[in-house]
Amino acid sequence: MTTHTTRMLILGSGPAGLSAAIYGARAGMKPILVQGIQPGGQLMTTTDVENYPGFADVIQGPWLMEQMQKQAEHVGTQLMYDTVVEVDLTRRPFRLIGDSGDVYEGDVLVIATGAQAKWLGLDSEDALKGKGVSACATCDGFFYRGKKVAVIGGGNTAVEEALYLTNHSPDVTLIHRRDSLRAERILQERLFAHKGVTVLWNKEVDQFVDGGGTAGLVAIDLIDTVTGEKSRLDTEGGFVAIGHHPATELFRGHLKLDDDHYIWTETGSTRTNVPGVFACGDVMDKIYRQAVTAAGTGCMAALDAEKFLAEMEFEMAEAAE
Questions:
Q1: I need a surface site. Which of 69, 148, 203, 277 has the fewest CB within 10 A?
Q2: Identified catalytic residue from 107, 140, 282, 304
Q3: Sequence-separated (6 or more) residues with CB below 8 Å from residue 309
């Protein structure tokens, strides 16, 4: 067992964690970043990225994360290939224990563990991810300009994504397994008033249909939840919008979470309810969920952490006089 100590400990290696590392390293905090179960975060499973600022041409998600990782290391971040399984936030330095048995201690802790989209769990869904099946309309909707698309779900996210897709597609279908939506009333009114959206009630996805070769998704096979009748919807884009799981299990009972289990932060900052612990990226943001906003909050977390340490050190110096 090895104990690793640092002024700034970061948990999570997506755009939020790596951005925090870059800013923290440049501020001289010599951060240690524990990469977690999915190094690089959700962008490692994303192929074409067309909406990250600074790139005129389409780039690949894994390549972008590789560049961020290299930048973080170049400015002085130490990357650790480990998964944290236990935390102690009751004292400072904060203490985290990895699956390897190693101990990580930090004067401040930045949590950037992210969130995962909920999927339907179909084999055909998994096979067509990135080939017509997506869990983010705002990320991928642009690729379906002028094409027929479908959204699966019945909550706020599904309705918002269906409405968003009308900016790109003249034919949007919302598929819901019940006969009424769970979305807020005002969103439902906007949806029902939009001529470009059709709602299919009491329908469940049986499978996503692969056109073979480079065709990708060509249709969605449906089952009526009331009659059991089968049908097929021709479509080139299928967006699964049934919610997200923030990766906060490790912090339940240690940090304040909101009703949806995202880490609570003070408005306008990344500060949590535990002084010296900061949260950034999708683990605290259930609204935007974009790589660029995650990177932005990662920067905020590093600046908040730097300010916290400076104030703490000033108070300690004053007390020692």
A1: 148
A2: 140
A3: 7, 8, 29, 107, 108
Instruction: Check: CB of residue 302 under 8 Å from CB of residue 19.
Output: yes
Q: Is 140 a catalytic residue?
A: yes
Predicted TM-score (pTM) of the model is: 0.83
Catalytic residue among 82, 139, 280, 304: 139
Of 22, 4, 81, whose CA–CA distance to 280 is shortest?
22
Within 10 Å of residue 82's Cβ, how many Cβ atoms? Answer: 19
Q: Tens digit of pLDDT for each residue in 196-239? A: 999 999 999 999 999 998 899 999 999 999 999 999 999 999 99
Three-state SS string over 123-152 comes to: HHHHHCECCCEECCHHHHHHHHCCCEEEEE
- Catalytic, 299? Answer no
Report which DSSP code applies to 28.
T
What digits encode the pLDDT tens for the residues 112-158?
Answer: 999 988 999 999 999 999 999 999 998 899 999 999 999 999 999 89
Catalytic residue among 82, 107, 136, 285: 136
In this structure, are residues 91 and 215 in contact, taking their beta carbons and an 8 Å threshold? no
Q: Are 52 and 59 in contact (CB under 8 A)?
A: yes
